[in-house]
Amino acid sequence: MSADQPVRNEWVKLEHGDALIAVDLQNDFMPGGALGVREGDTIVEGVNSVMELFSRGGLTVVLTQDWHVPEHYSFASAHEGRNPFDLYEASGLGPVLWPDHCVQGSEGSDFKKGLKTVFANAIIRKGYHKTIDSYSAFIENDKKTPTGLEGYLRSRGVERIFICGLALDYCVFFTAVDGIRLGFKVYVIVELTKPVGSPPESISIAMETMTDKGVHFIHADEIRPRS
Ligand code: VGL
Ligand code: ZN
User: pTM to 2 decimals?
Assistant: First the structure.
C-alpha cells in the first residue's frame, strides 16, 4: 500500500443478524431535485451492489422513504415569511426549514430511477405526521413516535445494521445514532452517503457525534459476503 492511501483497518464479514438500511434515495434528494444533495446520484450504483450482496446472503434489506404530507411543518412554505434553509427550531422540527420535498405520491418522492428496489424486504416511510419531522428511520423527531423499524429488525433477529443513502448529516446521522441507542452495532458505509451541509456545521456535528457514540465507518469493499 502506498503512503498516500488511507489505512484500512477494518473489514467485516456478513453473517446472520445483519441488515442493510438504504436511506431516502428519492428523486428530490438527487441533484436538480427539490432538496438536491450534491453527488447524491453518484452513490446509487454502489448502493445497488451492496443491496445485492446482502440479498444474496439472505440478509435483510430495508429502504426508507421520506414521505411528507403537503404543507408539512418542516417546509419553509408552511411558515409565513420564511425561506428554505432559514434557521428554525421548534419541537420536532429544525435546525433549518426545508424546501417542499418528498410530498407523498409526487415524482420527487419516488425512488431514483435505476435504484434496484427489488432487493428490499421492506420500505419504511417516515415524516407523514404534519407537525413533526422524522430524520431517523427509527423514531420521529419528537423522540416518542416509533416508525416500526426497530420491531421489524428485532423480530428478524437483526443485531448489526449497515447504513447508506441520503443525507449523511440528517437521516443517515439520526438513524445511526438511534441505532446505537437501541443497542444495534452500527456501520455507516462512508462512500455511499452524501451530506446536505445546511447549516454548514451539520456535517462536522454529525461526524463527531457518530464517532463519539461508537458508530463504525467502513467502505463497501471492506464488507465480505456471507459464506
Ligand atoms: C432529509 C432533510 C429533510 C434526509 C429529509 O433524508 O436526510 N433531510 N428531510
Ligand atoms: Zn424531509
Answer: 0.95
Separation of CA 134 and ligand 2 centre (Å):
7
Ligand 1 centroid – CA 158 distance (Å): 25
Those residues whose C-beta lies under 8 Å from the C-beta of residue 155, and which sit 6 or more positions away, are none
* pLDDT of res. 59: 98
Ligand 1 lined by 96 (C-beta under 6 Å): no
Tell me: pLDDT of 6 over 70. no
Nearest residue by C-alpha to atom 2 in ligand 1: 170
Is the pLDDT at 112 greater than 90? The verdict is: yes
Q: Which domains does the chain have, with CATH numbers?
A: 12-67+103-224 (3.40.50.850)
Active site residue 130: no
Chain segment 60-76, per-residue pLDDT in tens:
999 999 999 999 999 99
**In the annotation, is 164 catalytic?**
no
Average pLDDT over residues 8-19: 88
